[in-house]
Amino acid sequence: MDEVALVRAAINGDLDSFNRLVLAYQEMAYNLAYRMLSDEDAASDATQTAFFSAFRSLSSYRGGSFRAWVMRMVTNTCYDELRRRQRHPTTPLEPVDEEDDEEIESPAWLADSSPNPEQTLEQGQLDQAVQSCLEGLTDEFRVVVVMVDVEGMDYQEVSIAIGKPLGTIKSRVARARLKLRDCLQGFWELLPVQFRLENKDQL
Prior knowledge:
The protein is mainly α. The chain has two domains: 3-87, RNA polymerase sigma factor, region 2, helix turn helix motif (Rna Polymerase Sigma Factor, Chain: A, Orthogonal Bundle), CATH 1.10.1740; 108-195, Winged helix-like DNA-binding domain superfamily/Winged helix DNA-binding domain (Arc Repressor Mutant, subunit A), CATH 1.10.10. Helix content is 62%, strand content 0%. Helix 1 packs across helix 2 (15-37), helix 2 (15-37) packs across helix 4 and helix 5 (120-135) packs across helix 8 (166-184). The radius of gyration is 18 Å and the shape is globular.
């Protein structure tokens, strides 16, 4: 895909080119929205709204990573929805520990995977555990760790998408990973053997 050419054509009013960009990034956009909102319908609505916003704002695109630019639209749409929910909360937000500040490697079990039929049930349970732990993060931590560890975006792209300095992104990802690691030890039996701490009390 020649992204630069497609973006240029889309800016000049070629709807087909914009639709090709949508097809290229809609799965990533939906996955991010779902991880942020924990609801399929809300994620679909947010994804659609974000692409509408992107289309209307094409004239403001100034080059660089188009993927990061689109993900910024998705992130902003999700934040709008989360703020709306906070005005009408259904469950109380849990406090998040702010003490950890050490980076750990990106855990492979955070990424989306395509399990074979024999692994479907186990993978489904693990995915639910991951989503449960993601929901325990603040919005600022959740969005960066989803972008980096689930969607595979690099720190610079995330910095553009979130509109925060590179150092802030790195710090948030590191702290989010630690919190997720600790949370997921509560689902120890679901973790692939290579990712289990030898001692569950070793947190």
